[in-house]
Amino acid sequence: MSAADWMIVNVDKCFHCGACVGSCPENAIYLAEVVLEFNDKCNRCGRCLHLCPVGAITMEAKK
Amino acid sequence: MKTDYDIIVVGAGPAGSVTACHAARKGARVLMIEKRQEIGASLRCAEGISREGLAKSKIVVDRTWVSAEISGAKLVSPCGNSLRLNERNAGNEVGLVLNRHLFDKALAADAARAGTEIKLKTSATGLIKEGGVVKGVVGTSYGEPFKATAKCVVGADGYESQVGRWGGLDTTLKASDITTCFQYRMTNLKVEPNFCEFLLGSVAPGGYAWIFPKGGDTANVGLGVLGSRLKKKGEVKAYLDKFIKNDERLKHGQPLEALAAAVSVSPPVEKSVAEGLLLVGDAARVIDPITGGGIANSCIQGVFAGQVLGECAEAGDFSDAALQRYEKLWRDELENKLWRNWMVKEKLITLSDKTLDDIVNVLSESDLKSMSVYSLLAALKEKLPDLVKEFEQFI
Which residues of B touch A25 (CB under 8 A)? Predict the structure, then answer.
């Protein structure tokens, strides 16, 4: 499992504003122009979900 | 194709373009890359700036990028008490509402005329390093692999601030130093066309709501909520929709543009320079922690960065000692004020709606000389000394 599997971005909600990117304590998110990419530095802290202005990010529970 | 430069600037916002412009004017070979396909879009800004901020960053006002000239400001307390500051006592702190789509392009055009090469749709995805020293960037350009080398890389990549963290500079923020925002550019409003309005209190917990006129019956209507005050997912937009619905002047308005964004409301970063790397603008967390305004400070830093980098190119010396001159110049100009405003913000976010009502009352009875944070604090120090005692040394 990698972060790309558990971090889910609703592309219909996302404004590609970068709020999650600059707020991530691990620098685990990259905004490729309009696409959010999560890398394996992600430790599921949930800050990006919390700070996203439009609620576009969800996280799947650890299996 | 040319792949070696003196300076590569990552990000073509105001900080990047001003840096590039001043460095190129001194003869530096500058490349500025921008990941979007258009400079100045998409918008992530409420677009207000003071005339003083523009003057300090040596930018001459051009009406083509001005949406509205502002003659005063209005501060509204939670119960609706308001403090009006008109041109007479607002001085040079009052300013303009920009058209950032055009302003950013105008600054990039200045950089281009000074000799900067600009590449759009070109992203940095990492830094080239040799022995701990930054030597260039790798990424993609129009979808193809991209690589370029330079004696110094400038991270002007905004709130996202990736370049700094790749280069080992800590730009991490606490949740209480992040404000997340939502804004509509709205039309069909009944608002004053020359007044900027700031609404305090639980309408926007830990932040404020704003109405910045954009000409005629159009305005930027938005708000920011402090990260540590958010309870539910996607709450910021809900706060804004509620604010608009409850305001008689706004409720018949319709949106022309919607945007989301985050701003840092933090103390200044510990270091903005590493070997072969420096940060400017939002990437260097230089946004004013009270107002959330960042354009002026970004441009001021950009002037210093461009001057220092230009001198480095002239002297052929991009050593750490040479780059440190930038760190000193911007700190001398901005650091005390940023610290003071961060401390004021830390106090402001603890205040109840009742206290905010009292503050606006006190201020409206004072003979304010200007609308600067300094003069507002000085007036409060006289009437409500307990409120300001924690940062008295800055007043």
Answer: 172
CA distance to A57, B265, B375, per residue, from B330 (Å): 37, 18, 23
Q: Within 10 Å of residue B390's Cβ, how many Cβ atoms?
A: 12
Give long-range contacts, CB 8 A cutoff, 24+ apart: B353-357.
B353/B77, B353/B78, B353/B79, B353/B201, B353/B202, B355/B387, B356/B77, B356/B78, B356/B200, B356/B201, B357/B77, B357/B78, B357/B79, B357/B81
DSSP state letter for B29: -
pLDDT greater at residue B245 or residue B384? B245
Q: Are B260 and A49 in contact (CB < 8 Å)?
A: no
pLDDT band at residue B228 under the 50/70/90 scheme: very high
What ipTM describes this predicted complex? 0.94
Q: What is the pLDDT of residues A12-43, one digit of tens each?
A: 999 999 999 999 999 999 999 899 999 999 99
> Tokens standing for B352?
């109840």
| Cα distance between residue B124 and residue B323, in whole Å | 22
The pTM assigned to this predicted structure is 0.96
CB contact under 8 A, B172 and A25: yes
Interface test with B, best of A31, A37, A50 (most B CBs within 10 A): A50
| Gap between the Cα atoms of B46 and B221, Å rounded | 8
* DSSP H helices in B167-294: 235-245
CA separation, residue B26 to residues B20, B111, B117, B301 (Å): 10, 12, 15, 17
- Measured at the CA of B215, the angle between CA B212 and CA B219, to 5 degrees, comes to 35
Provide the CB-side half-sphere exposure for B335 (13 A, CA).
12
Taking CB atoms and an 8 Å limit, are B178 and A53 in contact across chains? no
